[in-house]
Amino acid sequence: MSATATPRVAVVMPCYNQGKYLREAVQSVFEQTFADWELVIVDDGSTDDSTAVAKSLIAENPGCRITLVSQANAGPSAARNRAIAATRAGYILPLDADDRIAPNAVARMAGLLDGDPKVAIAYSDWDHFGAVQGVRRALEYDFRHLCEKENLFTCTSMFRRVAWEKTGGFKANMNLGLEDWEFWISCGELGFYGKRIPEVLFHYRLKEKSRNTTAQEHYRVMFAQIVANHPRLYPTGTVQAAEKILSLHRAPAGAAVVQDPNARIDALLEAARKLADSGQKREALNCLKDVIALSKSPDVVKRVEAIMELLKPGSPAGAPGPVKPLEDAARCFETDPSDASAVAVLSLAREKVFEALEKSANASPPSAGSTAELETMKSLLTSSFFTHDAPVLRQRLGVWRGDRTIRWFAEILVTSPWRLDQLPRLEQLPEPLRLPILRYLLKMPHCLTAPAEADDCGAHFNRVADAVSAYTSKNPPPNDAREVLECFLASHNCIPLYVAEGNTRPWMQARARLIERFLEMSGCAVDYSAPRLQTTGRKIKVAFISQHFGHQTETYVTAGSLHLDRQRFEISLFALSSNPGPVETYCRSKVDHFHVLPNSVREQVAAIRAAQLDLAIISTNVTAVTNPMALIAAHRLAPKQVISYCSPMTTGFRHADYFMAGSHALTPAGRGHFSEKILEIQGPPGCMDYSGEPSARSAPLSRARFGLAPDEVVFLNAASSYKISHECLDAWCRILGELPGSRLVLMPYNPNWTSQFPRVAFERNLRHLAEKHGVAWDRIVIAPGQPTRQAVKDIEVIADVYLDTFPFAGSLAVFDLLELGIPSVAKSGTSFRSNFSAALLREFGVTDLICETTESYVAKALELARNASARAGHKSALQRGFEVRNRATSPELFGEELGRRLLELCTG
Question: Is the dihedral of CA 353, 357, 358, 364 positive or negative?
């Protein structure tokens, strides 16, 4: 696991006096077939050698991402919450320090969550070892059974981070056990459900006397606490009985027994006031969140605001300070920007810091604020709250009279980083704020809501990269330079740059230089004199290197390139992890060798170099974020290295020699956008091979399912919200505005990119544009995310016309629509990535659907919508195109063309 990439999975391990078992538990994590993980160990006030063992493990495994957090003993709930707060991974897997997981546990659980967005918790069967042995088969998920009967699964079950954020995490009042059961019920109450994997993936140690066996003595009390925490799920009599049990054991039941909404609001507000007065600000905030969830009436909001005043820094509520509830509010805002209580907390904190900066700007000497204000600013900068409009604060910026440097600190509280006019040098920033501000500067818009915003983001990204380069070139203390580089690598996200119209080459070369610098500081040998072996009389040794070769978009793109002549090529696959299943099996059937790489970057690179390849082809997207494959791709691995079109733009890497690009997608200007030489393949950029795709039952959906009439003209787009530009949405709404009675179906939340989407911001922008063009909101249908390609196609059949995205064009999505015979309107551009869909249309000979301007794009969409016979003609042409063997539909034909070009590289 890379020490720089934000991992997909975090294994969180609370440890209290389990030093003698800790190494065994951690070793089970090291043995995972799934490579994209990090491990967070929380020493929960141990008095044995747990800390020493953890530090030893970290020192022995420098290539693995292991974090040790130490705290005073607070129990497993607090320890797990602390560990989860220390990571940004999207999937969380708790593992106690005396237990173990099977080698394929992370892969199987993450695979389930990847494949089914409706599932939030992946759990498995387990076995016991130690004092008691045996296998336990978990029950199938049943929320009512979970609430009333028993815990269906163990704490070592993987869940989506969003579930932890929405529920508030593991509850502190479950201090005598059953905290995991309570957490699963909290998840289910909010609609986060689980699914069983019928395999033993977890090994549960039972000792003669452990916390788990002791917890049984407190079962009655803790179950009563569960009932008190979730009164809406239980009958009134059960809640009242729980209150009595808790009162006997002096465990506060809070306002749990109140059933009437108004009475419950009163009780919650009273509880919040008492908690605020006693300094328990986080608990008070949780009560206020519950109040807002029940009612947003003006009277209730006013009462909430009055209590919020008690939570402001310096209020009479006393210690502890405001940072912890502020961190919670920041996390809530990232998940849901419309969360009223989170907005209230963040607004108050921002205003307080802004006022302090105004005062300090006029002080002598000026300063960036007190320690408490710096801590508050750090918490604010972790969120995207700068996107929340603050017109009053902006007015005050306009009449700022004090120190201009301090004004910049005030400005970043209310300004998107890519909108800043200037950046300070990193060495000018206060040391406590240097990394938080760098993370803020590297934030990108979750969705594009203004014209040319992606190009603005690219220019800004380049400025930040230059600032990082300048700072790390001035010989700061080695630890400082490494921290800044690691922060850059872990925090940046280049996906919005895909939507830029301009040349991304300088931006990506700046990024590549920083990745190389970090690797060199980490002791990696980026440069290497790869032996150039005589190829006469032997097969060319070529390897495809990927995150994995299981079910994913990149694998289907790569599979189309595996059809090389086995008499001329010796083909290997190198994967960071094995992903057993029909897709991986199919890929392995097309090659000679399959290798799973070790854990550390240095070991991974050494293993590839040891194969003495002639050609290495990088088959994972290495341009979006700094994933493990990007770190590998920055090294010299073989005499010739090729980037596949899984990466939609240049990598900037010195050791990337060639970029595989289809001639149909290249323009004279676009050729200059690559730092690599072009490995030009005649035809489209690539060829998808879905031969290994798991079969799925097809049940095309009717228009009635989405409230669409049979005679309405339906436009459709299935692209992720992340690749839809503001200009593109504007054109779509303009088309609807010019064609009354037409409808638009969007599928922006399909999980092939991610499981989390900026729904609020995306739909707010879409509503604004619809209003601008006089389009009623009910003419736009946003379909739910679909877990499989076939499920997406079952919806796409309702469309009359497909509207492709621009300037980042569709590829696989457009291929599916063309296969269905649905005409797709495409807008071509200068860059390689802007011509993906146009390249497919050229291969099928349907070039009249390719438009060069937005005006012609809108006109073509309207022309097709108004002419059913034209649509029918295009459908017939597309069906004929799929019947003819071409380089978009025939992996064998594409493999012949690719093989010819690879031979030229190695023997020419």
Answer: positive
Tabulate helix, strand, coil % of the chain (nearest 5).
Answer: 50, 15, 40
Please list the residues that pair with 857 across neighbouring strands: none
Per-residue CA distances from 228 to 238, 240, 252, 477 (Å): 9, 9, 9, 53
Contact 147, 219 (CB under 8 A): no
Q: What is the DSSP letter of 722?
A: G
Distance CA 35, CA 596 (A): 10
Give the contacts of 791 (CB within 8 A, at least 6 positions apart): 696
pTM: 0.68
Nearest-10 crossing angle of helices 431-441, 371-381: 20
Find the helix packing angle between 219-229 and 179-189, rounded to 10°.
20
Whole-angstrom Cα distance, residue 406 to residue 360?
8
Contact 632, 658 (CB under 8 A): no
Is residue 569 pLDDT above 50, yes or no?
yes
Q: How remote is the C-alpha of 744 from its chain's centroid? A: 27
Q: What's the CA gap between 890 and 882, in Å, rounded? A: 10
Instruction: Please tell me the distance from the alpha carbon of residue 558 to that of residue 397, in angstroms, as a whole number.
Output: 52
User: What average pLDDT is seen over the chain?
Assistant: 87
497 closest CA partner among 677, 652, 658: 652
Q: Are 183 and 167 in contact (CB under 8 A)?
A: yes
Cβ proximity of 267 and 255 under 8 Å: yes
| Separation in Å, CA 692 to CA 579, 646, 658 | 13, 18, 28
* Number of other residues whose CB lies within 10 A of the CB of residue 180: 20
d(CA 274, CA 272): 5
Q: What region, left, alpha or beta, does residue 793 occupy, with left being phi > 0 and alpha being psi -120 to 50 degrees?
A: alpha
Helical pair 371-381 and 340-361, crossing angle rounded to 10 deg: 140
Residue 208 identity (one-letter amino acid): E
- Answer for the pair 102, 32: CB distance below 8 angstroms, yes or no: no
Check if the beta carbon of residue 708 is closer than 8 Å to that of residue 742: no
The string of pLDDT tens digits covering residues 485-529 is: 999 999 999 999 999 999 999 999 999 999 999 999 999 999 999
**Of 859, 824, 820, nearest to 840 (Cα)?**
824
| 786 vs 908: CA distance, rounded Å | 46
**In this structure, are residues 620 and 545 in contact, taking their beta carbons and an 8 Å threshold?**
yes
Q: Which residue has the tokens 């919005």?
A: 496
Confidence at residue 753, expressed as pLDDT on a 0 to 100 scale: 66
* Residue 826 CB partners (closer than 8 Å, separation 6+): 804, 806, 809, 814, 837, 838, 841, 849, 850, 851, 857
